[in-house]
Amino acid sequence: MKLASTVVLYNPEKNVIDNIKTYLPISDVLYVMDNSTQDIGFIDELKKLEKVEYVSMHGNQGIAAALKMATEKAIADGYDFILTMDQDSQYPTEDFPFIKKYLEHIEDNVAQVAINFTGHNALLPNDKGKDFVEKCVKCITSGTITNLKTYKNIKGYNSDLFIELVDHDISLQFLEKKYSLVVFPNICLQHVLGTIQNFKFLWIKKERHIHSPLRYYYQYRNYYYLKKHSSKEYRKKLEMIHHRDFTFVMSLKRIFLQKNHYQVYKMICRGIHDGKKGILGPYKEMSE
Questions:
Q1: By the 8 A CB rule, do 134 and 185 touch?
Q2: Residues 62-75: pLDDT tens digits?
Q3: Which of 146, 188, 199, 215 is the most buried (most CB within 10 A)?
Q4: How far, in Å, CA of 158 to CA of 169, rounded?
């Protein structure tokens, strides 16, 4: 079993090296895809790490383009699987033997193998042990291992999505082809999902994960694009996965629970407009 790994960088802090060292030992090669728009002072140190292959994307080409290039490179280099990681994630290396054993006997119809993660929308762990595996309907990018034999049979990463829902698009492409996705719910990734904002509702203190207005633009744009420009089966699964995420009520919460209400509102509306019109790629300001 040959396992490639990849991480996509975007103007990272130096602690990304510590994160990389959590999954470098389990990797036969690590493709470091650099989408950064500014000089990173520790790149030479990063390049010196054993098994690292550094690839500059010459500016921010989006996570989809970087993952597409890394996955195609892994296939060309003869690897069986690829582990995809975010720069702010740490992999539970000590639990990898459970996953490795599963990969060594993986069924032909299993396309992705994910693990649980900390924070919002995480799966509830159970008492069935770390080797317990169950089916799932979506995998996030970070901590997921893709079976490259199955990847060859789908369209693959859509570079035009740029960022957001890129991982769910791949998962849905696999499901559309009748492949299975599985998750280890009792093995957990250390992962960061947005910024936590504290607020009060009816005198009750609550926490909520929030994103920048630009990220909301990409989320709404890509959701409405995929919803409109996909097969009926794909669309049904997309709506099932995100049945609460893009409702009118949820959109109002995103707008009014942030300080920059108008900017969030503006970017959500623009995202819906561009998605329905099929306007993809990096965000561009509208000309007056």
A1: yes
A2: 999 999 999 999 99
A3: 146
A4: 8
